[in-house]
Automatic annotation (TrEMBL), chain A:
<dbReference type="GO" id="GO:0005743">
    <property type="term" value="C:mitochondrial inner membrane"/>
</dbReference>
<keyword id="KW-0472">Membrane</keyword>
<dbReference type="GO" id="GO:0006123">
    <property type="term" value="P:mitochondrial electron transport, cytochrome c to oxygen"/>
</dbReference>
<dbReference type="GO" id="GO:0045277">
    <property type="term" value="C:respiratory chain complex IV"/>
</dbReference>
<keyword id="KW-0007">Acetylation</keyword>
<keyword id="KW-0832">Ubl conjugation</keyword>
<comment type="pathway">
    <text>Energy metabolism; oxidative phosphorylation.</text>
</comment>
<keyword id="KW-0809">Transit peptide</keyword>
<keyword id="KW-0496">Mitochondrion</keyword>
Automatic annotation (TrEMBL), chain B:
<dbReference type="GO" id="GO:0006123">
    <property type="term" value="P:mitochondrial electron transport, cytochrome c to oxygen"/>
</dbReference>
<comment type="subunit">
    <text>Component of the cytochrome c oxidase (complex IV, CIV), a multisubunit enzyme composed of 14 subunits. The complex is composed of a catalytic core of 3 subunits MT-CO1, MT-CO2 and MT-CO3, encoded in the mitochondrial DNA, and 11 supernumerary subunits COX4I, COX5A, COX5B, COX6A, COX6B, COX6C, COX7A, COX7B, COX7C, COX8 and NDUFA4, which are encoded in the nuclear genome.</text>
</comment>
<feature type="transmembrane region" description="Helical">
    <location>
        <begin position="154"/>
        <end position="174"/>
    </location>
</feature>
<dbReference type="InterPro" id="IPR004203">
    <property type="entry name" value="Cyt_c_oxidase_su4_fam"/>
</dbReference>
<dbReference type="InterPro" id="IPR013288">
    <property type="entry name" value="Cyt_c_oxidase_su4"/>
</dbReference>
<dbReference type="Pfam" id="PF02936">
    <property type="entry name" value="COX4"/>
</dbReference>
<protein>
    <recommendedName>
        <fullName>Cytochrome c oxidase subunit 4</fullName>
    </recommendedName>
</protein>
<dbReference type="InterPro" id="IPR036639">
    <property type="entry name" value="Cyt_c_oxidase_su4_sf"/>
</dbReference>
<dbReference type="GO" id="GO:0005743">
    <property type="term" value="C:mitochondrial inner membrane"/>
</dbReference>
Amino acid sequence: MISAAVLRGIGTLTRTRAAFTAPLAVRCYSHAKVETDEEFDSRWVTYFSKPDLDAWELRKGMNTLIGYDLVPEPKILDSALRACRRLDDLASAIRILEAIKDKSGPHKEIYPYVIQELGPTLQELGISTPEELGIDKV
Amino acid sequence: MVVSNVYLHSLSQFKIPTKANTSHYLSLSFLSPPTPVFSWKAMLHLTAGRVAGLLSRRGVAAFSSSGVKMASHGHGGVTEQTDMSVPLYWDRLDTPLPDRPYKDTLSAADKSLKQKEKGPWNSLSKEEKLALYRIMFNETYAEMKKPTGEWKTVFGGIFFFIGFTGLVVLWQRYYVYPPHPPTLDDEWQAMQVKRMLDMRVNPVEGFSAKWDYEKGQWK
């Protein structure tokens, strides 16, 4: 019956409560080492910097990166754009920029910042931004 | 990020042998919950594949890319269903680089453009860059995200069916309901009230108690 189960549940709660009121400093968090932002960034920069990166790995890396709950740092994107250049793939480079704009979501200031930081690279490699090509509007 | 270093380290060293061969990467992204980009056409292609398998080869459904056409009279068992064993193209916001380029077969002009792409990109004109983009991809992000106006269909449908229901109820009123009971008419009700008062229904605190018998009116 429902009431009996609830009462039993409350009983277990009160019984084990003593253990939880033990020293507050001891939390049940995992002891795994958390990667810092810099480590994350450098790992991804290294990934895209591989000289013989192939198209599959570029796609896989990019799709995985976009799957994370973050907007990649310009230096990671710089590495990815250079990988596109090595693979002679301009379209993917432009697509990456579009994806970054989409990833920023409501934070409209991120994309202009990224474009600004990537400015020299875009100039050097000859990558047009989506805005320059007019594909940022329907 | 909680992606293990081992995984990504091995990734950068060599391709991970996936279930489907190393040269094909079968993206399982289509199994995830719907994203903002949801294509009825693509879904229909997938389900058609399964349905066509279940149906006999005679009653075949042929799907054209121009819209959703169900032709139950197929010609000689020719099925057009998406081949799920090869890399597919998807326009998805969360998958910027799909498994294959959009255009598989390139015209001569496209091929020469692809050759030009191997050189410095600064020498490409805007139109050429756009053409290269369109070879690789179908919709731009802006096109993927554009509002569909689906809400108009939804509301239209809602109002239409509410209206239709109204007509059904109206028809019911004239063809289903039994004849109007006379006991609900005002004059009958008046006679009923008079009878109740004459009978002294609830004279202490209820009905007749509210009637002033001297003055002949409600208190």
